[in-house]
Structure formats: structure tokens, C-alpha cells
Design goal:
- With 338 residues, the chain is of the alpha+beta class.
- It folds into four domains: 51 residues; 45 residues; 87 residues, Homing endonucleases (Endonuclease I-creI), CATH 3.10.28; 119 residues, Endonuclease I-creI.
- Strands 1-2-4-3 form a four-stranded antiparallel β-sheet.
Length: 338
């Protein structure tokens, strides 16, 4: 369908109204309504076309977008000031004094009338809003071990776990749901026979991107004894191993992280050996699950739970992975400790 050319008279009125509207900061929709009120018959799409193409250089550019964390702080401050009876102008001045941000009256109006909110579309907005919990400690332990936290194109932040033990992956999914205040993500079986759970969560990526920042995770892990136990259990579920003699080992290439795990176990009254190298950088090894040969990019270290503390480890920490837990129980029964 061919678009009709605007009559010269209509075009002149359109351009004149556009000049007036753009100068006042109006959007094309309001300018279209102004034209309609003045009896000028022109489609909204035409107004939009002229608005963006002809007056593009004169349109006011949007300023830098405030981060969600700051918008949430401003939102809470605005609501608090409004409850105290302050006018919009007074709120603008108070917020500018305390945060250095000058808000528009329209934004304050939308926030106070519950039309808009920076909380919308976000259950946990930033690390500051994460609450310490055993579930969060368990998530930290898993991602520090077998899990991953990656940033992809398009500002996609993925938290993922691939493992052959379904109960381990399902427990991780439940913890993710609890931490992110949503339904647990689905566990899917891969062609390799492994199970996978994956979720997009920028807040967890910022907390758990590798190498793990010990100072950042410490307040969550060391919040209480249960948090420390869940962190240690999930890390040993990922990186731990029980041999046929009942000895418990734990492996990782991050020496600082391994030392932190030792510290947590020590607080729980469980002693371990000093870290030692088990695989040197450049060593080739075969992955039986995926059927591929890999080369170690870093030195891999291990620690071992002192034999006399294995029973305490079983009682306080243990394993979510059933095959590891059963092997540990068999050893303790042979020793007459269970």
C-alpha cells in the first residue's frame, strides 16, 4: 500500500507543532494529540517518523542510567521522606543533598503511587541484598568446586553445574531457588550421562566469579556453624574423594581457596594435612565421563582429613553424594565406629 504524500499545509502545521513540542520536551505521542486537538488529521506513525528523523539532533539525549542498586536506595529514601510528609520539591532537594542525584518529579510521583519500582523484575538485586543462609553457603561451596560462574555476550551471567550424581545436582537446584527467591531451575540429563542445572543470576556471578574472592564470600560462609558445615559439605561433594581405605581427600587448583576450606574445617574441629601438589601444570589426564583427554593448566593441590577426625567429619559435614557417603559409612562400620 502506497503512503499518501502530506499536503503542504498539513506538513507545515506538523513541522511547526513538532518544533514547539520538541522545544518543550514533549514526546511524539503528545505532539500527535496536540495536532489532533487542532484539527490536523495525520497518523501517529507519520508524526513519529518526522519526530525522530528530522529533529533527531535536537532531541534531548538520555543521561547515564543509574544502577539498580542505587535506584533501590533512592526509591527507599523517597518513600521514607514522603511518609514524613515532605513535598516532591523538598524530596528532590533532600535526595540531592544525601546522594548527589537530582530526581524528576514524575519519577518521585510514580514511585510514591506504586506505578513504577526499581524492585520490579528483580528478586535479589545485588550482593548487598543477599541474606546469609545455609543454602547460600551451599551454593558458594558448589560453585567454588565443580560449578561455574560465567559471563556471556549480551550481559548474560550464568551459574551452572554438571555432575554425574543426580541428588547432588537436584540439591544445588533447590538451594538456587531458595537463594534467588524463585522456583528451583530444572535439572536436565546430558548426552554424556551427566546432569545439568543452569540459571542466570548476575548477583551470584558477581559474588562467585573465579578466582573466588575469599574476603567477599567469608561473611556468608562464616555466618554460623550450619553455614560453615554446608559450605564444607558442598565443596567436598564437588572436589572430595573417599578411597577404599576410608581416607578423605579434597582437590583444587586454587591454593588460597583450599587453605580457606582448611580454615573452615579447623573451626569445626576437623584437622587436615597441609596442601600438597598431586598434579603438576602441563600433565595430561583422561576424563572417563566425557571420554576426553585434558591437560592441566595449573598445579592441582590436595588436602586429606586426619584419620582420627574422620568420624567427626562424618557427623558434622558428610556428603550429599550418596556413593561417597556410603563408602565413608562402610569404612566407619569396619572400624566399629558406627
Amino acid at each position: 500500500m502506497m503512503q499518501r504524500k502530506l499536503l503542504l499545509e498539513v506538513k507545515e502545521k506538523l513541522l511547526e507543532t513538532l518544533r514547539t513540542g520538541v522545544a518543550k520536551g514533549y514526546g511524539y505521542d503528545k505532539i500527535w494529540r496536540m495536532l489532533k486537538e487542532n484539527g490536523v488529521e495525520v497518523s501517529r506513525s507519520t508524526v513519529r517518523k518526522y519526530y525522530y528523523k528530522i529533529f533527531r539532533e535536537r532531541l534531548k539525549k538520555r543521561g547515564p542510567y543509574l544502577q539498580r542498586e542505587l535506584r533501590i536506595k533512592l526509591y527507599d529514601e523517597v518513600r521514607r521522606l514522603r511518609k514524613r510528609g515532605l513535598s516532591y520539591s523538598m524530596i528532590i532537594d533532600e535526595v540531592y543533598k544525601s546522594h548527589g542525584v537530582r530526581l524528576k518529579k514524575s519519577v518521585i510521583s510514580y514511585w510514591c503511587r506504586d506505578i513504577h519500582s526499581p524492585y520490579n523484575g528483580c528478586r535479589v538485586s545485588s550482593v548487598e541484598f543477599l541474606e546469609p543462609s545455609p543454602e547460600l553457603s551451599q551454593v558458594i561451596g558448589v560453585v567454588a568446586g565443580d560449578g561455574s560462574a560465567t559471563k556471556k555476550k549480551g550481559y548474560k551471567y550464568d551459574i551452572k553445574l554438571d555432575a554425574k550424581d543426580r541428588e547432588f545436582v537436584e540439591e544445588f537446584a533447590k538451594c538456587l531457588g531458595k537463594v534467588l527467591k524463585r522456583h528451583p531451575p530444572k535439572v536436565r540429563k546430558q548426552k554424556t550421562g551427566e546432569f545439568r542445572v543452569e540459571v542466570r543470576a548476575k548477583v551470584l556471578y558477581e559474588l562467585l566469579k573465579k578466582p573466588i574472592d575469599i574476603n567477599r564470600i567469608a561473611p556468608f560462609v562464616e555466618h554460623c556453624e550450619e553455614c560453615m558445615r554446608r559450605f564444607a559439605r558442598s565443596f567436598f561433594d564437588s572436589e572430595g574423594y573417599v578411597d577404599k581405605y576410608g581416607r578423605i581427600y579434597c582437590y583444587n587448583s586454587d591454593l588460597q581457596l583450599l587453605q580457606y576450606v582448611r580454615k573452615i574445617l579447623n573451626i569445626l574441629g576437623i584437622r587436615t594435612t597441609e596442601p600438597k601438589i598431586c598434579t603438576k601444570k602441563g600433565t595430561a589426564f583422561f576424563n572417563r565421563i566425557r571420554g576426553n583427554t585434558y591437560t592441566a593448566k595449573k598445579d592441582v593441590y590436595y588436602i586429606r582429613v586426619i584419620t582420627s577426625d574422620i568420624l567427626r567429619f562424618y557427623r558434622l559435614v558428610g556428603f550429599t553424594v550418596q556413593r561417597k557417603q556410603k563408602r565413608l559409612e562402610e569404612y566407619l562400620r569396619k572400624r566399629g565406629l558406627l
